[in-house]
Amino acid sequence: MVSVAYSIAFWGIPFGNTSFDGRFSGDGYAASSHFETRGVVSLFWQATIDASTVGRFGAQMLMPRDYDSYYRRGDSKKERVKVTFDNGAVTTFADPPYNTTKFPVSDDQKRGAIDPMSGVTLVLTGLKADRTNPCGTVAPVFDGRRRYDIEFTYLKDEPVTLAGGLFKGVAHLCQLHYRQIAGFKQKILKEGAALPPIFGDFGDVPAPGAPNGHYVVPLKLWSHVSWGTVSVVLTNLRSSSDASKE
User: pTM of the predicted model, to two decimals?
Assistant: First the structure.
């Protein structure tokens, strides 16, 4: 079991919280997450997202079965997306429905992809991590709308200390690359624009209950954009080897 929580800030001002809980049993896994805005941002963008996934572990890869995402904005806008992975066949259910033929994702492009929650699980469990790539290599994701890769490039090790004794030691500094393959464009981007560079510090956290004996935990993520700096910082960490940590 691993449970992490983060504070999301812009220019150092918190505007949201997100959490992730993962449980592993035998060759299976189940994960859930929660995101919500807070502070002054909630006055004009009040959003909540709950997501979950279940699946099995494969050889250095995950095999998801069901992914469920529920998005709410205010009292009026609600949206649910479910993606089912069944022996290589990937199907999407959306309520309200949207036009999947406008920006299609082919069956070949979906093959081998995993849902966003399984992507986070892939990173945390370190299935793609090794000495050369301590943050992992790539998470191939299909979220029901778009197919993209999150690629990791290891830069160096550096000391990191987090408040509250959450982490103090050497972390792996890596750059994250978002590579769109097919489907709907990201709404935060202008047509033809690329996401700004994203960097992260990842720490190895020993845990006997982890699939590989340790978790690769994102400690800090940040990106410098034209209108400021967005950061995500770990605020809570619990694992099967440290059930008392709050």
Answer: 0.90
